[in-house]
Specification:
The chain contains 2 helices and 8 strands; from the N terminus they run αββββββαββ. It is α+β, with helices and mostly antiparallel strands and about 150 residues long. The protein starts with a helix and ends with a strand.
Amino acid sequence: MLKQFRVLPCLATMLLVAASLPEAQPPQANLIHVEITGVRDDKGQVLCTLYSSPAGFPRNADKAAAHSSSAISHGRAVCEFSGMTAGTYAVSVFHDENSNGKLDTNFLGIPREGVGASNNAKGHFGPPKFEAAAVQFTGGRLDLKITITYL
């Protein structure tokens, strides 16, 4: 009987320790993870848009398959798109320095804020084409890196 009383405190301690451990998070399925670098300051936010076709890329966010945003820390940001199905996608990002939710441009339409696209695709006399920024997503997790540039 005395042994049972010695076991109870040990059992209670083990239960308390197990309850305080963080739960293991299952890996997110079908995730497109985008790491953005080259952001010139930590003001504002980075807005990311995921397109599943050339329609609207990269200017018309209303035609995008998904949207994400991220705070900036030390010139870096991360956007994630979860629950995505396999397919061809292109990502467009911009540094929304004044947090107005839109890409600010000058009178010629040239961006005043930093921009980027998957594959670090660049346009010639305009934004990049969907085909240049397109990536194949087969499911699981896809890690992309985009460097923002300022014109």
